[in-house]
Write a structure and sequence with these properties.
binds zinc ion, 2 domains, Collagenase (Catalytic Domain), Neutral endopeptidase, domain 2, four-stranded mixed β-sheet, 25 helices, single chain, alpha+beta, 677 residues, 12 strands
């Protein structure tokens, strides 16, 4: 899944819907306004600063967030809408309909902080005891399976996903995993920042084990054990930039062969423990990881492995334990993200309800916020963008007719989903009890894990959504070959019914173009119209693509995100390709619309249609981040910071230079313009 902005940060998720301002009124309207422009800056020297300068000056990062940006502004508004829905739903009894009972009781139990304090560690104790009771390493795999069903994924990841070679069928996958920190580099690199974050993790583990009953000395030893095991897993893990290539993750093998790769994992027992449907083949995304970690399991004592699994159970549930756990968790997250304060409880509980019951809460959300008119205008824009991409492919100077024909077949096959699912998920079998936060949380996790596992060996359900309706984000899926826009993102400044089309094409138009272009970036181009991993390029065209893509990778590798830390041009290549392609085809679509209207466009607020297009584009990327968060994202986020999502794109566009009258030698005119699409 390739989204327009970063979402789930590992298990300590800080997702798109995480956000902000507390009770103070919004500092400014979340929409397009020329008041955001800093006219003291020359747009040809630093367009991002020109378009966002006053926004940046007038925006403060809310204390409970690591950032503020356009996504955050909308998320903030959504949280208030969702809170209102949930507070109403949580009042009342059996006269409520099934949806309100479920979402209301989930939220209500979550908000009952005094019940949480009164129960202490008790709600999690049975799970921790079960891990402690494992008699040998075979019994340990049973408890790992249990932990994987109810929450975190110690040791490795097990999940279902479309078969790389037959996307119509869902198969089982096993993959590297089992880390607490966001990436293998956090365990391996020895610079001061990484050492500091490892120390923060070690402190967090020590505190959590002390709180759950270990002596200070035991807890410190436990922390060392966890870090030792996770460091071994990190060393066996593949680098995330290398993993971008789906071909390196394509290792389908028989069930027996996979079991034989890592006999100490007792995978046959694991598959049975999690009630997996039977299968004869599965994909092992990183076979070397299983080979190497097989030795780790052999060399570590049973007690050490139990400590490691207990840690993952504790960390996965810490958010819903009493205050001292929550504070320890926050301190650790602060080291990674740099926010000043923890989120207020109501925000955590709104997000938790969205995670657990997203398509039930989502029904209520779209009833309130999403109209048929919005959907119709989006469909018209998607259509205009698809035509523009087709036109763009026709005109590509570097691609042969043969590959162009294949590219157009793929484009033609891209489906779209807008607003919310046609078929809502059924949560009737998920038990939600009043006053039982931890129980509800673990049951909701288990409900979702079992739902995912049940898909194995079944045809792909193409109606399914991977984001909930209130999510302020969008995605392209290679296996589904589809672009998806939840209702949450179809609001200002992304999509503004009251704004001219020039601005809308720059904002939501470029977002649509971004997602479409993902079908043809370094990863997307390797999938065919049906979503199968199949090379449909001539060899020569493939080389031409690589040549142009490496221009983009080099360009972004020279951008500095924070201090002296540069972007990883290869990690961000797909997103940068999508940003560049999306901006180009959205502008083409706008020019087509203006031409077809037959009217001479007029300036608005003193700006030409093209200038407003670029201002609308930049507005989406106005952003502020803590230095800690910037640093974390450079390490793990495939997206570039907003400054470069703006300037990195416009400096490649002669259309931009024409619109703003920029000249050779100015910063927004790259001497080495890159263009893939
Ligand atoms: Zn993207």
């Amino acid at each position: 899944m390739r989204s327009i902005l970063w979402c789930a940060l590992l298990s300590i998720a800080l997702c798109a819907v995480s956000l902000a301002q507390t009770s103070e009124p919004a500092q400014h309207k979340a929409g397009f306004s020329i008041d955001n422009i800093d006219k003291s800056v020359d747009p040809c020297m630093d367009f991002y600063q020109y378009a966002c300068g006053n926004w940046i000056k007038n925006t403060q990062i809310p204390p409970d967030r690591p950032d503020m940006d356009s996504f955050g502004e909308v998320e903030e508004q959504n949280l208030l809408v969702l809170r209102d829905i949930l507070e109403k739903a949580s009042k009342g009894g059996s006269e409520r309909d099934a949806i309100d009972q479920k979402i209301g009781d989930y939220y209500g139990a979550c908000m009952d902080e005094s019940a949480v304090e009164a129960k202490g560690i008790a709600p999690l104790k049975p799970e921790l005891d079960q891990i402690a009771a494992a008699k040998d390493k075979q019994a340990l795999i049973d408890v790992i399976a249990r932990v994987q069903l109810i929450g975190p994924s110690p040791l490795f990841n097990f999940y279902s996903s479309p078969d790389f070679h037959n996307a119509d069928m869902v198969i089982a996958y096993i993959d590297q995993g089992g880390l607490t920190l966001p990436d293998r580099n956090y365990y391996i690199k020895d610079d001061a920042k990484m050492v500091g974050i490892r120390k923060a993790l070690s402190d967090y583990i020590t505190t959590a084990f002390t709180l759950s009953g270990q002596s200070a000395q035991q807890a410190a030893e436990s922390a060392k054990t966890v870090l030792d095991i996770e460091t071994a897993l990190a060393k066996a893990s593949m680098d995330r930039t290398v993993r971008r290539d789906p071909k390196v993750r394509d290792h389908k093998m028989s069930r027996e062969e996979a079991i034989g790769l890592a006999p100490n994992f007792y995978l046959a027992r694991f598959f049975k423990d999690v009630d997996s449907p039977t299968f004869s083949d599965l994909n092992v995304s990183n076979p070397d990881f299983f080979k190497q970690v097989n030795d780790v399991v052999a060399s570590q004592s049973l007690d050490s492995l139990k400590t490691y699994v207990q840690w993952h159970m504790l960390a996965g549930a810490a958010k819903w334990l009493p205050k001292p756990y929550v504070e320890a968790r926050f301190k650790f997250r602060q080291a990674l993200f740099g926010q000043a304060e923890d989120q207020p409880r109501w925000k955590k509980c709104v997000e938790a309800t969205d995670e657990a019951l997203g398509e039930a809460l989502g029904q209520r959300y779209v009833e309130r916020t999403f109209g048929a008119e919005g959907k119709q205008r989006m469909l018209t824009m998607v259509d205009a963008l698809e035509k523009a991409l087709d036109q763009d492919i026709t005109g590509l100077p570097w691609m042969t007719e043969e590959t162009k024909k294949q590219a157009k077949i793929k484009l033609e096959a891209i489906r779209n989903k807008i607003g919310y699912p046609d078929v809502w998920r059924d949560y009737s079998k998920l038990e939600v009890k009043q006053g039982d936060l931890m129980g509800n949380f673990l049951r909701a996790n288990e409900f979702e894990s079992r739902r995912q596992i049940a898909k194995i060996s079944k045809p792909l359900d193409r109606k399914e959504w991977e984001m909930t309706p209130p999510t302020v984000n969008a995605y392209y899926s290679g296996s589904f070959n589809e672009i998806v826009f939840p209702a949450g993102i179809l609001q200002p400044p992304f999509f503004d019914k009251s704004m001219d089309e020039y601005v809308n094409f720059g904002s939501i138009g470029a977002v649509i173009g971004h997602e479409l272009t993902h079908g043809f970036d370094d990863q997307g181009r390797k999938f065919d119209p049906k979503g199968n991993l199949r090379d449909w390029w001539t060899e020569q065209d493939g080389k031409e693509f690589e040549k142009r893509a490496s221009c983009v990778a080099n360009e972004y590798s020279n951008f500095v995100a924070v201090d002296d830390l540069k972007l990883n041009g290869k990690l961000t290549l797909g997103e940068n390709t999508a940003d560049n392609g999306g901006a180009r085809i959205a502008l083409m679509a706008l020019e087509n619309m203006i031409r077809e209207s037959g009217k001479t466009p007029e300036k608005i607020d003193g700006y030409t249609p093209e200038q407003r297009y670029f201002l609308g584009f930049a507005r989406v990327w106005c952003e502020k981040r803590t230095p800690e968060y910037s640093r974390t994202l450079v390490n793990i986020d495939p997206h570039s910071p907003g400054r470069f999502r703006t300037n990195g794109v416009v400096e490649n566009m002669p259309e931009f230079q024409k619109a703003w009258g920029c000249k050779t030698g100015q910063a927004m005119v790259s001497p080495n313009m890159c263009r893939v699409w």
